[in-house]
Specification:
The structure holds two protein chains of two kinds.
Chain A (H helix, E strand, L loop, with lengths): L3 E4 L2 E5 L4 E7 L5 E7 L6 E6 L5 E4 L2 E5 L5 E6 L8 E8 L7 E2 L3 E6 L1
Parallel strand pairs in A: 2-11
Antiparallel strand pairs in A: 1-3, 3-8, 4-5, 4-9, 6-7, 7-8, 9-10, 9-11
Chain B lengths: L3 E4 L2 E4 L5 E7 L6 E7 L5 E8 L5 E2 L8 E7 L2 E6 L8 E9 L7 E4 L3 E5 L1
Parallel strand pairs in B: 2-11
Antiparallel strand pairs in B: 1-3, 3-8, 4-5, 4-9, 5-6, 7-8, 9-10, 9-11
Chain lengths: ~110, ~120
């Protein structure tokens, strides 16, 4: 079945630094979604992407839908302590109901 | 964004009992809901896809008689863990597909239910 490779698996950064993570797939997706999950909580939707090449921002977060439709990245600028958590990418192929999830990127920020 | 609620947020039960978890879309109608299971430090594992008014579609390896799913209305789906055992202890999360324009629907998650089976 489809798989998403998300990297890096973990990041340890200083407060104020920029963060970049990405997901790649062997399949073509028509939807890319980025979520953040805090401990003991459900994932919260950050950004949704629907068109190849689309670049969308949500505050300090920016995500792009890759031109090949097989990848997406998420950038966080000027990180702050509340950015700590696990970030998941998720994709959906055309006609499918279910999402395929990446393994997650655990972000830790040193104050 | 759209709101999905789950109840209860946590439950502790004895081995052999059944537990029901509710998932509600509060401000939109969801024709499709999903149930996931998540182990510590792992990604979400899809258990089943639930369409309103029809039988759920279970992922390979998920016992449909063990994990009963009912999606009786456009805003409510339930997951019942029957005859629960300690190995069923986990974090269960539901999500609902929110309609958008053509090709722009998305998926929102509930806050999760922590199940502990003693």
């Amino acid at each position: 079945g489809q798989q998403l490779n998300q990297s890096p698996q973990s990041m340890f950064i200083q407060e104020g630094e920029d963060v970049s993570m990405n997901c790649t797939s062997s399949s073509i997706f028509n939807t890319w979604l980025w979520y953040k999950q805090d401990p003991g909580e459900g994932p919260v939707l950050l950004i949704a992407l629907y068109k190849a090449g689309e670049l969308t921002s949500n505050g300090r977060l920016t995500a792009q839908f890759g031109i090949t439709r097989k990848d997406s990245f998420l950038n966080i600028s000027a990180s702050i302590p509340s950015d700590v958590g696990i970030y998941f990418c998720a994709g959906r192929i055309q006609g499918a109901q279910k999402l395929v999830f990446g393994q997650g990127t655990r972000l830790t920020i040193n104050p | 964004g759209a709101v999905v609620s789950q109840h209860p947020s946590w439950v502790i039960c004895k081995s052999g009992t059944s537990v029901k978890i509710e998932c509600r879309s509060l401000d939109f109608q969801a024709t499709t809901m999903f149930w996931y299971r998540q182990f510590p430090k792992q990604s979400l594992m899809l258990m089943a896809t639930s369409n309103e008014g029809s039988k759920a579609t279970y992922e390979q390896g998920v016992e449909k008689d063990k994990f009963l799913i009912n999606h009786a209305s456009l805003t409510l789906s339930t997951l019942t863990v029957t005859s629960a055992h300690p190995e069923d202890s986990s974090f269960y999360i539901c999500s609902a597909r929110a309609p958008g324009g053509p090709g722009t629907d998305t998926q929102y998650f509930g806050p999760g239910t922590r199940l502990t089976v003693l």
